[in-house]
Amino acid sequence: MHDIRTIRDNPAAFDAALARRGLAPLSPAILAIDEARRARILAAETATADQNRASKDVGAAKARGDTAAFEALRALIATKKAEVARLTDEARAEDQHLSDLLLTIPNLPYPDVPDGTDEGGNVEIRRHGSPRNFAFQPVEHYQLAAARGLDFDSGARLSGARFVVLMGAMARLHRALAQFMLDVHVTDHGLTEANTPVLVRPEMMFGTGQLPKFGEDSYQTTNGWWLIPTAEVTLTNLVHGQTVDEDSLPRRYVAHTACFRSEAGSAGRDTAGMLRQHQFEKVEMVSITTPQDSEAEHARMTRCAESILERLGLPWRTMVLCAGDMGAGARRTHDLEVWLPGQNNYREISSVSTCGDYQARRMNARYKPAAGGKPAFVHTLNGSGLAVGRTLIAVLENGQEADGSVTLPPVLAPYLGGKTRVTAQGVLA
Hints:
Blueprint: H1 4-9, H2 11-19, H3 27-63, H4 67-103, E1 123-128, E2 150-151, H5 152-159, E3 165-166, H6 168-188, E4 192-194, E5 199-200, H7 202-208, E6 219-220, E7 226-227, H8 232-236, E8 243-245, E9 251-260, E10 279-289, H9 294-311, E11 316-320, E12 332-340, E13 345-354, H10 358-363, E14 366-368, E15 376-377, E16 379-387, H11 388-398, E17 406-407, E18 421-422
Helix pairs in contact: 3-4, 6-11
């Protein structure tokens, strides 16, 4: 959510930042609503002052026996009281109108975010590792003999398209990856592990920006709860409505949860395999910090996600997304893309975003400066560390052998009872 005072002070800069996201100028409409709201508030205050003066004078008129003045003042008080009520209601309606509009406007990109309208404008900032040279034609994960434990037929029978059942070695490998990620983030990166609900109240979805504009991308239960699209929702909202001490920041969280997305905007994309599912699992990182520390925190979180890929021995590159390709809540986003030899392409496996105070304003989350002074809004950041299913895909495709087996990253052996490969028969060995 945006600060109306910032828009008032520099509407041209606000519109210029929105233009980088491909949006038409919005400050004229915003300021018109704001002006109408403020005019009604001022008029209500003036009418209240008139009412208060009349209330003082009416007693004096009665005391001196001036019946005409007394009745006139009584009528004026009633008129002003009704006027105040009307103007207050109108101001409240304009305030709601303004709030509703501001809630739908995306965050403003930082100046260093590259211009562009889609993924073609994204800029690579670094890469690690080189794609493996195969002596055979690599295939996609769902075509591997070793991956026979990916049961798409059962998933479709149980739930429909874009669901999968993981069996045997695939289920265990998937679990091992999540445990490995959590252990690295907690032990080496100093994040606090959390286990959070996957059902949340609507105000939590509003807080992180999934509502009101993107409700179609998520699932709502019949009693009003929402299924989280990512643990960003629960972890970020841990400070919802709170004012915390600066000394308690940064707060760095990590959680492994099921995630649910309707994929409403991706019809026909990535329908083969398990790259894009309605239900999937992620290890999510969230940081709550002060404005002065958020830039360094964004770099730190990106490095935490990159570290997982490095330890798994997977080739990857980091992209900074252009203004037109970022999510609505982000001011800057780093996408980590892992090499998938079956697709002969890099594919997103993590997005690490800094949101500034955009989510904090929606959540009313503040901190008390240690040096004293007025509470200020916190800054929030989130990032995948990593998407577990996509990491499973990357491990399978990059480790595939000519006989259909898969050689696994050595770091996973302690989580697999010392096993280092999946045979062509789909068994850990």
